[in-house]
Each structure stands twice: as C-alpha cells, then as structure tokens.
Amino acid sequence: xxxxxxxxxxxxxxxxxxxxxxxxxxxxxxxHNVRPVLIASGASGMVQLFRVRLSEEGNFLQSVRFSNxxxxxxxxxxxxxxxxxxxxxxxxxxxxxLEEGAVMQLRLPKCIPNxxxxxxxxxxxxxxxxxxARNAQVYVLSSSSMELVKTLSAPTDLASVxxxxxxxxxxxxxxxxGEVIIxxxxxxxxxxxxxxxxxxTKIRLSIDGNTIACGSNTGIxxxxxxxxxxxxxxxxxxxVVPNLLTSCDSIAFTHDxxxxxxxxxxxxxxxxxxxxxxxxxxxxxxxxxEKMPNIECVEFSPHSAFLAIGCGNGQLILERMNYxxxx
Length: 327
Hints:
Blueprint: H1 5-8, E1 16-20, E2 26-31, E3 37-42, E4 46-51, E5 60-65, E6 73-76, E7 82-86, E8 92-97, E9 103-107, E10 120-122, E11 128-132, E12 137-142, E13 148-153, E14 158-163, E15 170-175, E16 179-184, E17 189-193, E18 200-205, E19 211-216, E20 221-225, H2 226-230, E21 239-241, E22 250-253, E23 259-263, E24 271-275, E25 280-281, E26 295-300, E27 306-311, E28 315-320
Organism: Haemonchus placei
Family: Belongs to the WD repeat UTP18 family.
GO cellular component, one term: Pwp2p-containing subcomplex of 90S preribosome
C-alpha cells in the first residue's frame, strides 16, 4: 500500500505531551509490548512507568529507584512482566517485576571477569541477553538463569549490538571502527564495512528484518538492504542520510518499517524523521520555531502511534503519529 510522506508526519504540536522527570539525562525509553505503558529510566537510577495518552496529567503509574545505578540499558523480558536494567557503573543487572513491584539483583556467572553490564540487548522472546564486554567480546546469557550460553569475539571494540528481529540465534553488532558483524550462535560469522564510517556508534534493524541502519560519529546514517549485507563484504547503502550535524546516538523504526527516527545528544534540536521509501527527511520535524533539548533516546510504540523522546534535561516527550491508529 502506498503512503504519502505527509501522512506519516506527526500530528500538530497540540498532540504532543511532555513531562519533566526527576532525573537527567533520560537514557532509555521503552514501550510495553502489550499494555499502553511507557517506561523511562536514566542517570538517577529511577525507572518510571507512565500511561500512554496525550493528557499531561494523571499519567504516572509507578516507579522504583536503584541506588548508585545510573541506568544505561533497559530491555523487556518474556511476556512483558519484567524489565532488565544495566548500568555502566555496576557489575550486576537489576530485574524489576512490573506486576509485583519486586526487585532482584542478578550477577554475572563466575566464569566471566568482573565488569559493568551497561550495554546490552535482549532477544525478542526475552530469553537471551547479549552484553557488550571488555576485550571486544559479547557474552550471550540466559536472561532467567544468567548462565553463559556463548562467547563471541570481534576484531575491535564494539559500539552497539542487537538480536536479529524475531530470532534468538543471530546477533548483529557494530564496531567502533564501523564494521558490521553478523554472528550465528551455531558458529557462522560474517563481517563487512559500513561505507564511509569513521567511528561506528549505533546499529538498528527494522522490525521486518529487511533494513539495517548504521549510525556514525559524523552524524551520517547509512541504510542497507539486509539481503545485500548478508551477501557482501562491501555493500552499498540504499539510503545515505546526512542530516544530523553531530554523532548519531539513537535510531528507531516504525513497526511497518516505513519511517525511521534518529537523533544525536551532542547539540539541541538534533532529531530527524525519515520516510524510507522516498528517502525524504521531514524538514518541519521538529518545527523550526521549536527548540528541543539534547536528545538521548527515541523509540516508537508497538504499532507506531506514538514516538517517545528522552532528553538530556530530564524531559520526556510523547509525539502522536497521526498516520497510525493503534498503540
């Protein structure tokens, strides 16, 4: 079905809501996979849950605070009943049961050297966790038992990691040198170069598994067809997006892979929205008269009706995407 780029553009400013949280920056935003709930966490170690709607009052649901634990990674576990939080300051994870309000500390198995668990990804089914480790390694762990499942090695330090959508057997990673690595837990490995990358910063795969976006410290985001990436060591980008002025820190796709949001936390107003099929970046998002803070993270709701934006000043922004009807 064909859509115009105008149709996907966010609604007017009246359909935006924001709240200032008692933490700055907001490092992670996550939508619940079933319920209309937005979860935000950040430098204060607080995890806060909000009801998703465009009213600016009465949306707060619950919160928990982890002592000396600035949250830098967050993911949802099987069934959406619990979330996992990691910090670059601590050598353990915090598991938060959303229904019971219970908190559990999870430590690495003894076979793994002590180190922080500040950057990780969780598989779609919530069963596995892949953490970026020291010495250019990735440890794949059982999210329930914390048992070590696999150790993966890269040629240089890693910047970003993600499970392939719908799979708990394939992991994609971006090195700081701009190399993309595909690992199969059965032993297969494929390595390629992100064209023009000086230093890789962020990797993100579209939910349909057909597109991969690679962000770099120059602000350029390259989009590739996954089929091309699998079959070549030097694939050519399908789309090159040069619109950010500074390093790309966060990327998110809509559920149908029609649009992509991407941002940088180095300067204010550095967030863009791309219509992928037409390679068009919306010039009026954000609107010219608007001054958005430094942006740390972006994420779409499960069916893309909302875009969450976490900011360095503690502001949490919720944009209504008028083309999409469902949460």
